[in-house]
Design goal:
Pfam families: GGACT (PF06094). This is Gamma-glutamylcyclotransferase family protein. InterPro entries: AIG2-like_dom, GGCT-like, GGCT-like_sf. Residues 8-136 form the Gamma-glutamylcyclotransferase AIG2-like domain. The protein is an alpha+beta fold. The protein has one domain (8-127): Gamma-glutamyl cyclotransferase-like (Hypothetical upf0131 protein ytfp, Roll), CATH 3.10.490.10. 20% of the residues lie in helices and 40% in strands. The chain has three helices and five strands. It has helices at 19-25, 71-81, 118-127, and strands at residues 8-10, 29-44, 49-66, 93-102, 108-116. It has a five-stranded mixed β-barrel. Strand 4 and strand 5 (108-116) form a beta hairpin. The longest helix has 11 residues, at 71-81. The protein is globular. The model has no long low-confidence stretch (mean pLDDT 94).
Length: 139
């Protein structure tokens, strides 16, 4: 699977209007479109959400396409924001390639998604309560 330069699916503080959107994405994207991640549930975290892979769930968010000249720097910055280090068992999130669906026309596309890392996902599944509509409120 080719995972070079995939767009990003954002569902929390990186969404338009979210606290991190302006800090990381404003002026660095070519497109931001409403989209759905199927096969995941959204759980609240301490000020930010976690997508946990689970059959039957849906998470609402946006698929964000970076400007080509911003892609590498943005990828590195988002990995730092999400405290993602490939293979690190202490990760809170893992960055994975998943299929998301554009709201406008139902087109599926591959995108990077930061999902809850296995230990976090297990804890949320056992003690957390999913956000009923899979839509993190932008504050």
């Amino acid at each position: 699977m080719d995972t070079t330069r995939l767009p990003f699916f954002v569902y929390g503080t990186l969404r338009p209007g979210g606290v991190n959107h302006g800090l990381f994405l404003r002026g660095r994207t070519r497109a931001e479109e409403p989209a759905l991640l199927r096969g995941a549930l959204l759980y609240p975290g301490p000020g930010y959400p976690y997508a946990v892979e689970a059959p039957g769930g849906t998470v609402r968010g946006e698929v964000v396409t970076a400007l080509p000249e911003e892609y590498e720097a943005l990828l590195a910055e988002l990995d730092r924001l999400e405290e993602y280090v490939p293979g690190d068992p202490r990760n809170l999130y893992d960055r994975v390639a998943r299929t998301v669906v554009r709201d406008a026309d139902g087109t599926p596309l591959r995108a990077w998604v930061y999902v809850a890392a296995p230990a976090v996902a297990a804890r949320l599944r056992s003690t957390g309560r999913p956000v009923a509509d899979g839509n993190w409120p932008v504050r």
